[in-house]
Amino acid sequence: xxxxxxxxxxxxxxxxxxxxxxxxxxxxxxxxxxxxxxxxxxxxxxxxxxxxxxxxxxxxxxxxxxxxxxxxxxxxxxxxxxxxxxxxxxxxxxxxxxxxxxxxxxxxxxxxxxxxxxxxxxxxxxxxxxxxxxxxxxxxxxxxxxxxxxxxxxxxxxxxxxxxxxxxxxxxxxxxxxxxxxxxxxxxxxxxxxxxxxxxxxxxxxxxxxxxxxxxxxxxxxxxxxxxxxxxxxxxxx
Length: 238
Hints:
Blueprint: H1 13-22, E1 28-30, H2 42-45, E2 49-53, E3 64-68, H3 70-75, E4 86-89, E5 94-96, H4 110-126, H5 128-146, E6 152-155, E7 166-171, H6 176-187, E8 192-194, H7 199-205, E9 210-214, H8 221-237
Parallel strand pairs: 1-2
Antiparallel strand pairs: 2-3, 4-5, 6-7, 7-9, 8-9
Helix pairs in contact: 5-8, 6-8
C-alpha cells in the first residue's frame, strides 16, 4: 500500500518496486489513500499495477481505476466476458479486442464514470501539490495538538513528512467505538472506528481497534479545533 489507511504512513513504494523487480516479481500498488491526496507518477514509481477508488476522491462509490503497464495488459486474458470486448467469436474460440476494450465487457457504469472524470478534473484544477500541502498543514496542526492531550495515544509516524492526513488514536480506558459515538452524538463529528480492514496490523500493535480521523480539502482548522475540544472533553469526563 502506498499510504496506510490506519497509520497514515507513506511507504517508499518506488524502493519496494526496485526490490520486487530484482527478483522478477510484479509490483501492485494500492493507491486508494495516496492518489486523491498527493502527486503520484506511475512512471516514476515504475509500478506494474496501481489501483485507486473513486469515492475517496469526491466521486461516487462503486467505481475506481486500475492502471497497468501496456505490455502486461497485452499478455493478460480478460477476466469478464461481454459486449465490445471481442473482435471475433465463433462456436469454439474468441479473439479479444484491442486494449483497453478487451477489459471493458458489457455496459459500464456510465454515470459513475462521468462523475469520476469530473472529480479528477476538479482535483487537477486545484493542483495535487496544492492539495498535498494544504492537507499537510491541517494534519500537522491536528497531530501536534492531539499529542498534547493527556490520555490520548496516537499511532503512526510523528514526522509530518512521513505521513498523510490520517490520524488513528485511542483514548485511555475508553473503547474506540465509544469514542466515535461520543464525538458523533455530542459534537456532530463523524470519524471511523474499528480495525479498518487491517486486522493483521491491529494484532501486530496489540490493539482491538482505533478511532480514526482523516482530513481532506473541505476541512479547515476550525474543524480540527472542534475535534480537539471534543476529545479533550471526553478525556475530562472519563
